Amino acid sequence: MMDLVNAHAGRAALLRRTLLIAAVVLAALLPRAVGADDSLPAPSGPVILTVTGSITRTNAPGRAEFDQKMVEALGVEHLSTTTNWTDGKQAFDGVRMSKLLAAVGAKGSSVAAVALDDYAITIPISDFTEFPVILALRMNGQALTPRDRGPLWIVYPRDDYRALQNPNIDLRWVWQLKTLTVK
Length: 183
Fold this sequence. Notes:
Blueprint: H1 2-35, E1 49-53, E2 64-66, H2 68-72, E3 76-82, E4 89-96, H3 97-103, E5 110-115, E6 120-124, H4 126-130, E7 134-139, E8 142-143, E9 153-155, H5 167-170, E10 177-182
Parallel strand pairs: 1-10
Antiparallel strand pairs: 1-2, 3-4, 4-7, 5-6, 5-10, 7-8, 7-9
């Protein structure tokens, strides 16, 4: 009878140990599984945009970094419009700013946009929800480079909306965009 009691006690101890190990492993994996929806993939190419501030999805400490492929993965759209800096109507390809902000879980009412030359302006997020503003990667089929307002240019569909045809909105066309800070 004593052997049966010892065998039962041994199995119970083994079961407790197994459950403890399982609980430790599950506790270690659970935050990763829950956080998987809250994090972005890491860029594999050169970072062309960094988003900081009031965002819920990141891929680096306190920020979301994007390479060109990551931006394009949000869904490239086409926009034709005139600008105050080019002649005639131009064809732009890029990603809607509203999609970019949704991708980072933006929680704010404005973004501070900063260009490579440190030009900075605060833009209301309502611009991006009311109008199909894009973050352009290409103009007339050619990739934008720093020499021609790239690699990213905030482009408004000014020809489609009379409200966008004013000097205050023109200030928000940030070219050579490098960072956005959600406020």
